[in-house]
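ABC-2 type transport system ATP-binding protein structure dump, as promised
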Amino acid sequence: MIEAQSLTKRYGATVAVDNLSFEVKPGKVTGFLGPNGAGKSTTMRMILGLDTPTSGDVRIDGKRYRDLRQPLTEIGALLDAKWVHPNRSARAHLSWMAASNRLPKNSVDKVLDMVGLTEVANKRAGAYSLGMSQRLGIAGALLGDPRILLFDEPVNGLDPEGIVWIRTFMQRLASEGRTVLVSSHLLSEMALTAEELIVIGRGRLIAQSSTAEFVERASGSTIKVRTPQLDQLQAVLQQQQLTTRVEAGDQDTKVLYVDGDVTTDQVGELAAAQGVVLHELTQQRGSLEQAFMELTGDSVQYHAQDGAQPAPGVAGALGVPPVSGVETVSGPREDN
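structure tokens r here:
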């Protein structure tokens, strides 16, 4: 279990993480979400003792990271897939990690096999693709068979097969009772992977809840109805003070949507009482992406204007200065 209490990190006058508290419990994959500059990477570095909090505290199963005698056996992490020395082979890199943490030699072959790198284990890490480097980083995180795992953007560079693999792999690790915290910008993938969410913006906690609760709270739900007696059903629903709207459907048909706190059962019973024939009655929920945009809109650090301003990453690559009036974090790295 990971427990953060009032974590704050300042770089000069800039606050990267601001009084942030949360818990990451075992048995579930917890997604760690936020816009660029939200403080996710800084928070993960503070969990691992790589950055010292300005104030506040974070515990790993009740201990600070610096107090762990064999860290790899308690918490494993992938923060940067390319930090491996390029001239070392995957096997040599993992063997060094195992020796430095007094781990058995056979743990190296075990994790290489788990991540699918056995056939290229003696190849220089510098020749690896980003996807292969991600797998090597995951192998390093698993080397000590820890109960707690942190992954920062683990699907970067992976092909579709690799993305499905890491998704099911993280879920399996959580099902074994491990604590799994994963940060990612791929919201569609997080919707499939994470059962719980921690969402931050500008270093502050925005929400911590189940993924389903987060989506429902932010975007609500809508019931879609197709019926040849649309006008009759709409009148019945409006008599019940329900909000309805009609939109064009396929093949010049019209579709009735019912918004608000109402279930398909209630709509179906109202239709049946009036003898209205239903061709479709389904509940539609917003996506994680829609909910995320709704709740983090005020926390986005960089905004494009009318499509004319390059995206932040593109702007940086082209040497375009930051958007006027936006404060940037000054520190040893760019946070995400």
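The chain has two domains: 2-216, 221-285.
lmk if u need the other ones
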